[in-house]
Amino acid sequence: MDELVEAIRRNPEDGARRLVAQCRDRLYAVAWRLCGNAADAEDLVYRTILRGVERIDSYRGESSFFVWLDSILVNFYRMSVRPKGIRVLMPVEEVPEEEADAPSAADMLARGEDASVVRAAVAALPPVFREVTVLRYFEDMSVTSIAAALNIPEGSVKSRLSRAKLRLRRILAGTFCEKKASNSMPDEKSRSEKP
């Protein structure tokens, strides 16, 4: 990546082409998982690449170049989902006890559940939890890298991941229970046929 950074510094236009060729797909995957639609993901990637090239001199190499680009992308994402107007800060809610029988995303995937159910559950998370979940479980970033990308303490990353898992467990438990109930309910034809 040092070669790419130097290429961008030497010749921003050619460096931008190389940046797109080397990083676009990875950035798009993160953006799509955060915002859930192709148009917004493309916009986030375009803005991230443009900002990365414009601000290449601010990259100091304290973290990997990918982490630096991810932090730019996540900041643009945050700005896009931030409510307009006055924001009222709410107190952090209490973290509820784990529900033992609620399946995890990994359990559902291991049982062959459709990955789209898990993606939909992640998309239903509030942005602050979706960010850490996507970076950790879809992009396989370490807690340290996520903290650097989001500019938050590692403890906050761990806390958000824990709370995200609890919420996912509840969402997926609801989906699992609905699916189980619909599979166990007799259809109209079998109800009308009495022995």
Describe the model:
The protein has ten helices and no strands. The chain is 71% helix and 0% strand. It folds into two domains: 80 residues, Rna Polymerase Sigma Factor, Chain: A (Orthogonal Bundle), CATH 1.10.1740; 80 residues, Arc Repressor Mutant, subunit A (Orthogonal Bundle), CATH 1.10.10. The relative contact order is 0.11. Helix 4 packs across helix 8. It starts with a helix and ends with a helix.
Number of domains: 2
Could you tell me the strand content as a percent range? under 5%
Rounded mean pLDDT score: 78
**Cα end-to-end separation:** 72 Å
Give, in order, the helices and strands.
HHHHHHHHHH
Multimerization status: single chain
**Any idea what the CATH architecture of the largest domain is?**
Orthogonal Bundle
- The CATH topology label of the largest domain is Rna Polymerase Sigma Factor, Chain: A
Q: What's the helix count?
A: 10
- Residues in helices, as a percent range: over 70%
Radius of gyration: 21 Å
CATH superfamily (homologous) name of the largest domain? RNA polymerase sigma factor, region 2, helix turn helix motif
How many E strands? 0
Q: Characterize the largest beta sheet: strand count, sense, and whether it forms a barrel.
A: none
Q: What low-confidence regions span 5 or more consecutive residues with pLDDT below 50?
A: 85-102, 188-195
**Which structural class best describes the helix and strand composition?**
mainly alpha
General form? globular
